[in-house]
């Protein structure tokens, strides 16, 4: 059994590791647990995108039923749950009964912060489940542009929660949503590319879930036009880009390296990341620069050079567009935390 006292996904995965006698692999924005023993076999991954926005994925089989107890601040979090295989049950303490989320079902849940609620993951069942964690008050305090977009997308649900008791919604996983949930659960990348796949998948899932029309998803037929090998080629070329951000790689060079046509290459990037190749490179450079600001003592000029840009003014302009703060403001903000 694991008791969850807050919405920190890294604390949660550490609790799993202790209970399952497993080890975790950690890095910037992620933690991954791999286990194969008498308790369970499989993988649990945790990703933290930014304040108020995290996720955990389960691709695992427990030997016996496993119970998670949510208490205190953990109940101030809105959970988007997607069950692709297996099942789980969720019980609000004041209801006196459990709700079952079966294969191909999703649920949106939030409970009172003074109650103790439980999630039960069954034993001897292959589970493929994702939990997306949204914490409204943290999103409101976070000035990163994407959190503002997320806040706007979730406004209808947050409005319903203004005078909240328990909130719950059960439904089917839409086909388009299922594609991105599977991509999220199957993601084995743990560096910059892994973060970008996770972030893009979650946004696509929430768009598909919350907006009642397919037009919000670009090119809805795109995945059927790409083979699994072609998608893997796009992931490999993404990793090469992330390792060589100091180089200015053209689309033609990337096509030669990947063996994909320009059309297939662009389709793959739109499917995996929701953006063009050139936009992906810009995004990767900004994400890497943000990581360096948070984890190193490099100056802004050194960071600009390390991500393959020569113009500090251009870097500052793009960085502020993405994260609201200028690079200097962001570095000072993070240093003061």
Summarize the structure.
The protein has 337 residues and is α+β, with helices and mostly antiparallel strands.
In helices, the fraction of residues equals 40-55%
Net shape: globular
Order of SSEs, N→C?
A: EHEEEEEEEEEEEHHHEHHHHHHHHH
Rg, Cα atoms, Å: 20 Å
- What's the overall average pLDDT, rounded? 83
**End-to-end distance, in Å?**
33 Å
Low-confidence stretches: 212-220
Got a strand count?
Answer: 13
- Strand fraction equals 15-25%
How would you describe what is shown here?
Helix 5 runs antiparallel to helix 6 (192-210) and helix 7 crosses helix 9 (262-273). This protein has 13 helices and 13 strands. It is 44% helix and 24% strand. It has an eight-stranded antiparallel β-sheet, with helices on both faces. Strands 1-6-11-8-9 form a five-stranded mixed β-sheet. It has helices at 9-20, 136-141, 145-153, 155-160, 175-186, 192-210, 228-243, 251-258, 262-273, 277-295, 300-306, 312-323, 327-335, and strands spanning 2-4, 23-27, 30-36, 40-50, 53-62, 66-70, 78-85, 88-91, 98-101, 105-110, 117-121, 127-134, 167-172. With 337 residues, the protein is α+β, with helices and mostly antiparallel strands. The radius of gyration is 20 Å and the shape is globular.
């Amino acid at each position: 059994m694991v008791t969850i006292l807050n919405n920190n996904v890294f604390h949660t995965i550490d609790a799993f590791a202790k209970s399952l006698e497993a080890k975790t692999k950690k890095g910037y924005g992620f933690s991954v647990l791999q286990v194969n023993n008498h308790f369970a076999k499989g993988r649990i991954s945790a990703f933290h995108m930014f304040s108020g926005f995290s996720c955990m994925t389960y691709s695992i089989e427990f030997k016996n039923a496993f119970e998670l107890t949510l208490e205190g601040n953990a109940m101030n979090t809105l959970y988007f749950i997607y069950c692709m295989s297996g099942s789980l049950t969720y019980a609000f303490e004041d209801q006196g009964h459990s709700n079952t989320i079966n294969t191909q079902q999703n649920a949106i849940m939030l409970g009172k912060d003074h109650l103790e609620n439980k999630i039960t993951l069954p034993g001897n069942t292959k589970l493929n489940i994702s939990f997306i964690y949204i914490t409204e008050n943290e999103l409101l305090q976070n000035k990163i542009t994407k959190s503002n977009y997320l806040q706007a997308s979730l406004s209808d649900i947050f409005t319903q929660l203004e005078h909240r008791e328990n909130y719950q919604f059960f439904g089917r996983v839409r086909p388009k949503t299922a594609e991105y949930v599977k991509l999220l659960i199957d993601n084995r990348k743990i560096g910059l590319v892994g973060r970008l796949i996770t972030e893009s998948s979650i946004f696509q899932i929430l768009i598909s879930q919350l907006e009642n029309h397919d037009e919000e998803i670009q090119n809805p037929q795109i995945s059927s036009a790409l083979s699994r090998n072609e998608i893997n080629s796009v992931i490999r070329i993404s990793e090469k880009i992330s390792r060589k951000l100091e180089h200015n790689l053209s689309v033609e060079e990337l096509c030669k390296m990947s063996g994909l046509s320009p059309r297939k290459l662009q389709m793959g990037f739109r499917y995996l990341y929701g953006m063009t190749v050139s936009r992906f490179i810009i995004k990767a450079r900004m994400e890497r620069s943000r990581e360096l600001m948070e984890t190193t003592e490099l100056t802004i000029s050194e960071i600009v050079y390390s991500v393959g840009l020569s113009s500090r003014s251009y870097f500052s302009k793009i960085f502020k567009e993405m994260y609201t703060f200028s690079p200097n403001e962001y570095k000072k903000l993070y240093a003061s935390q």
